[in-house]
Amino acid sequence: MFGRIIWPVHEALAADVARDSWAWLQYGLSILAGLTGLIVFVPWALERRRRPETRFQWKVSQSGEAAGLDLWDGEDVPEVPADQVVLVEAAIQNVGDRPGEDGLINFVVPDCLRLVSVNNPDRKVIVATNLTAGLAPEHRVHFFAPTTGAWSPGDWVSLHHSLELVDPEALEDPLRIRLLFCVSDTRFNESGKRWLPSFIRHFDVGNAPAGTPWPPRTEASAWRAFVGQVRWVHSMPHGRVYRTRGERQDTRDIVFMPIRPKGSRSGSSANAP
Q: Which domain holds residue 153?
């Protein structure tokens, strides 16, 4: 009985299927539609995974002069006199593979500092509260909020600010403050990195100082140059950037030292009766 059931099924499966011209046309159109969808979807998916990413770079001049700007490492905490004007350069570079579209920059300092934008001295500061840069108990801060504008891969956005204490004479103990540099963009993901590598050009090549040929020459073969562009995108410097969806943050600390010994007052004298 089992054989009588299986045999008709086997014959049905083995039977030839006759297709007319309309059936072959439908078959061809189905394959064409599938290939078209794949061709359209793959570039769209690749474009969606492209994102801008941020590299932070800080420089500081303890003399307040632009000629004295030096790279400011995250572990370095400079100590300056309370009456000294400090110049800070806060810069970001797009190290991703897509231009930034609507980036917003916040440079935030506690309200005990007088904040001036060297790029635009007439710009008015914005007052708010921030638990990272503000001092207890009110955590009031001053900040600027310019936009990045057109921010293509490899481009830098550099801001210069001068900082000085509002009332240096009143400082009796060393005051450690934190400067916050924040960049927002809707294309930032939460992790600051990706599972798969991307094709990213080397941003530090293409230089040719005076006396060398132009355009710059490379000794690498075309294949090696192509392979060298396959890299992982991640925020920089590694281990320093706080990452959330749509935002990147970095900080630096600086200590203002009192200009007079604790307890002394302006105009007082050790020999006064």
A: 53-190+241-257
Query: How far is 248 from 56, CA to CA, in rounded Å?
Result: 9
Q: Both 174 and 92 in a single domain?
A: yes
Residue 267 banded pLDDT, cuts 50, 70, 90: very low
Nearest to 80 by CA among 160, 179, 175: 175
Does residue 41 sit in the same domain as residue 57? Answer: no
Count structural domains, the chain. 2
Angle at the Cα of 154 from the Cα atoms of 149 and 160, rounded to 5 degrees: 55
**Neighbouring C-alpha atoms within 13 Å toward the C-beta of 194:** 19
Q: What per-residue confidence (pLDDT) applies to 219?
A: 61
| Tens-place pLDDT, residues 33-42 | 888 887 876 6
Examine the domain organization and report whether 166 and 249 are in the same domain: yes
Q: Are residues 30 and 68 in the same domain?
A: no
- 3-state helix vs strand vs coil in the chain, percent to 5: 20, 30, 50
pTM for the whole thing? 0.76
Clarify whether residues 27 and 82 are in a common domain: no
| Strands annotated E in 130-246 | 140-144, 156-165, 175-184, 198-199, 230-231, 242-244
How distant, in Å, are the alpha carbons of 66, 239, 250 from that of 160? 9, 24, 16
165 and 103 within one domain? yes
Segment 206-221 shows an average pLDDT of: 74
